[in-house]
Amino acid sequence: MAEAGAWKFTDDRGRTVTAKRRPERVAAYVRAGAALWDLGIPLVGVFGSAHDGASWDRAKAGGLPSAGIPYAGAGDDLNEQTLSALRPDLIVDVTYDEKNPYALSDPLGERMEEAGVPSVALTVGSEASFAGILERFAELADALGADAQAPARLAAATRLAAAEQAVRVAVAAGPVPLRVLALSAAGPEQVHVARPRTWPDLKHLMDLGVHMTDPGEGAGINWMSMSWEQAASLGADLVLADSRSNAVQPQDLTALPAWRALTAGATVEPWNPETPCSAAAQTGFFRAVAQAQHTALSNR
């Protein structure tokens, strides 16, 4: 918080950023930026990760307006020149391991800091709780001058609580738990099946009573890669399919017999592993899961 003309914030890497005044020109990884936008923080620009392309991924952008916020690029297109052109005084990223920023490379981050632009990174990894992640983004937004009592913020929190309760009600409506499988399609030969306890939003669904299917022992921390035939053998009443632009989408899988076998009689619902970390953004997902649970029950 700002005290005596100084600003200070400690991020989830344990790094403390100090400044003579509160940052006002924030550039952020698009997922982090969308969360801050929902919480009332304006942005001078956003950037992507190595998975992104020449334009931002709408699945990660939440409520960001499609025009008016510059995009500095991703991968090799994201560099000191494109970031500096935004004239930021703070860069915000996420971290999965509480050590390394996800979208901003260490060398680029170091060069920006040498130029006087510090960065912070908030954890979205498996060690963090769903509620804890939302709380940390709210803390950063408040440190940057957002109003914690803003009507839109309070209303978003109320809607999220209602959506969580809707999931509980939907789970309780069935005589036996529905099998829910989260995945990211890599193509016709392979699919990545999520290990639900390593994804804070999926683990939160489990805490709400949802029966998430774990792919079992094997390689991979967050995902287990397998053939579509193996995935189909797991069975599912509800499939949560990665909606990010780097994943193959369900409409492009209809020719695969194993996809048809996996989804026969199942409900398919989009899942964004990088939903912005705000109550406003997360509410839609939980509402959709609640409705999908009801639909899947009716299909039984």
Automatic annotation (TrEMBL):
Pfam families: Peripla_BP_2. The keyword Signal applies. It is found in: Cell envelope. Residues 55-266 form the Fe/B12 periplasmic-binding domain. It comes from the Bacteria. Keywords: Signal, Transport. The keyword Signal applies. InterPro entries: ABC_transptr_periplasmic_BD (IPR002491), Bact_iron-sidero_bind (IPR051313). Belongs to the bacterial solute-binding protein 8 family. This is ABC transporter substrate-binding protein. It comes from Streptomyces cavernicola.
